[in-house]
């Protein structure tokens, strides 16, 4: 059976503009949530977000190329190039027809859509940019990444709201496992911290109205008041073990299982029984051929909405048992909710936990909700013994549930 391994990671987040910085800040509990600076958000009633800070597209994307991309595509290309560099992927050691791309996004080019609709309204339809469609459509993160790295195998986009990044990695895992590709670039990208993004989620009453950044994103806390919108991207390089070893690539971790289900319950609310999420976790464990008691860490979806956190906690208890010792944390407590990029960024966080034998904390948790009966990590970079397996959960509007099962790499 083909083993699927990870050989490269790239990340652009509210707590670091590359994977090493993100991981270092993650393990020290750095808060990436701060007052919104991208626009005057006063009228939205929302004051904080998880913004990417000091992003320079010239660093990796290039000034000329960036002009032909929405910000979400710039984020995707930036992280893909970091991941490819770490993996040591070159034209000489990878057949372009054996390398594919699956990048998810919940919304796509929302910044471009907003700008061009305003321009059409103010100046007429003749003034809409000819680049409007090719920059705003949700598949262009994947398209631009493939174009940049020369990947000629499957190139597709996953749009499953907040599960997009995890579904993208899971489907890329399947491509390799089933022999359709040797290398896949997979992840998620989102750039929706703008007027229409904040206003839209605020209208749903989904966002926290907290003005204090330290109290805005509180997954599993009884005082939680909604999620904080974040932005960014992450990309993983997945390879068959055989291909990676042939190139003498350094292996970071292994993907051993993937689960994907649908609640078929409600447009935006998760099933309060947690049934769909539990089935996705069970699917991932079944494919990994492991028992629940072998999992040492769960990177929870944990958005800090009452419905999500309660439903996910019930789902975890249904799979692992109500008195399970498995540790759980939501890194959205530090980054905010990166929508379609969340699962990819959290996969990086989960891989880092496996590599270091340390768990990122659920920052800010003071009063755990009694309805969330899970073993939440409260200490930054908490060391754990013999951490071999971890899972990462993503749950999205539309009832989408996606779960990755990851294993610490060791030469067998």
UniProtKB/TrEMBL annotation:
InterPro entries for the chain: 3-oxoacyl-ACP_synth-2, Beta-ketoacyl_synthase, Ketoacyl_synth_C, Ketoacyl_synth_N, PKS_Beta-ketoAc_synthase_dom, Thiolase-like
GO cellular component, one term: cytosol
Uppermost EC category: transferase
Gene Ontology MF annotations: 3-oxoacyl-[acyl-carrier-protein] synthase activity
SMART domains associated with the record: PKS_KS
Keywords, in A-Z order: Acyltransferase, Fatty acid biosynthesis, Fatty acid metabolism, Lipid biosynthesis, Lipid metabolism, Transferase
A Pfam match: ketoacyl-synt
Assigned EC number: 2.3.1.179
Gene Ontology BP term (one): fatty acid biosynthetic process
Functional pathway: Lipid metabolism; fatty acid biosynthesis
Ranges where the Ketosynthase family 3 (KS3) domain occurs: 1-408
Active site per database record: 162 (for beta-ketoacyl synthase activity)
Reactions mediated catalytically: a fatty acyl-[ACP] + malonyl-[ACP] + H(+) = a 3-oxoacyl-[ACP] + holo-[ACP] + CO2; (9Z)-hexadecenoyl-[ACP] + malonyl-[ACP] + H(+) = 3-oxo-(11Z)-octadecenoyl-[ACP] + holo-[ACP] + CO2
Cited NCBIfam families: fabF, PRK07314.1
Function recorded in the entry: Involved in the type II fatty acid elongation cycle. Catalyzes the elongation of a wide range of acyl-ACP by the addition of two carbons from malonyl-ACP to an acyl acceptor. Can efficiently catalyze the conversion of palmitoleoyl-ACP (cis-hexadec-9-enoyl-ACP) to cis-vaccenoyl-ACP (cis-octadec-11-enoyl-ACP), an essential step in the thermal regulation of fatty acid composition.
UniProt family annotation: Belongs to the thiolase-like superfamily. Beta-ketoacyl-ACP synthases family.
UniProt name for this protein: 3-oxoacyl-[acyl-carrier-protein] synthase 2
Organism of provenance: Ligilactobacillus ubinensis
């Amino acid at each position: 059976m083909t083993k699927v391994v990870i050989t490269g990671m790239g990340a652009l987040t509210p707590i670091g503009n590359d994977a090493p910085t993100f991981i270092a800040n993650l393990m020290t509990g750095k808060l990436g949530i701060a007052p919104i600076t991208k626009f005057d958000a006063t009228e939205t009633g929302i004051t904080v977000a998880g913004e990417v800070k000091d992003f320079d597209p010239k660093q990796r994307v290039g000034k000329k190329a960036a002009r032909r991309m929405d910000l979400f595509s710039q984020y995707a290309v930036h992280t893909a190039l970091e991941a490819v560099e770490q993996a040591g992927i070159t034209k000489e050691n990878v057949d372009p027809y054996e390398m594919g791309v699956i990048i998810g996004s919940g919304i796509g080019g929302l910044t471009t859509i907003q700008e061009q609709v305003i321009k059409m309204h103010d100046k007429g339809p003749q003034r809409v940019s000819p680049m409007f469609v090719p920059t705003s459509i949700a598949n262009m993160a994947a398209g631009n990444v493939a174009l940049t790295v020369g990947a000629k195998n499957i190139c597709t986009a996953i749009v499953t709201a907040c599960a997009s990044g995890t579904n993208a990695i899971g489907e890329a895992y399947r491509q390799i496992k089933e022999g359709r590709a040797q290398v896949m670039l997979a992840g998620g990208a989102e750039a929706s911290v703008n007027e229409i993004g904040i206003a839209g989620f605020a209208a749903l009453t989904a966002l926290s109205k907290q003005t204090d950044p330290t109290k805005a994103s509180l997954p599993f806390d009884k005082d939680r008041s909604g999620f904080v919108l974040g932005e960014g991207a992450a990309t993983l390089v997945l390879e068959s073990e055989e291909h990676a070893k042939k190139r003498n690539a350094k292996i970071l971790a292994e993907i051993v299982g993937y689960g994907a289900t649908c609640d078929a319950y409600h447009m935006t609310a998760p099933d309060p029984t947690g049934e769909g999420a539990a089935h996705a976790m069970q699917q991932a464990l079944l494919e990994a051929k492991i028992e629940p008691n072998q999992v040492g860490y769960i990177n929870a979806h944990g958005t800090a909405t009452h419905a999500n956190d309660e439903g996910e906690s019930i789902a975890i208890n249904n799979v692992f048992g109500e008195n399970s010792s498995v540790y759980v944390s939501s890194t959205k407590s530090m980054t905010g909710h990166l929508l379609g990029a969340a699962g990819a960024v959290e996969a990086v966080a989960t891989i880092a936990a496996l590599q270091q034998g340390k768990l990122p904390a659920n920052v800010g948790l003071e009063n755990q909700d009694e309805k969330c009966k899970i073993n939440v990590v409260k200490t930054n970079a908490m060391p754990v013994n013999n951490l071999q397996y971890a899972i990462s959960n993503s749950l999205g509007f539309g009832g989408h549930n996606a779960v990755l099962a990851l294993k610490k790499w060791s030469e067998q």
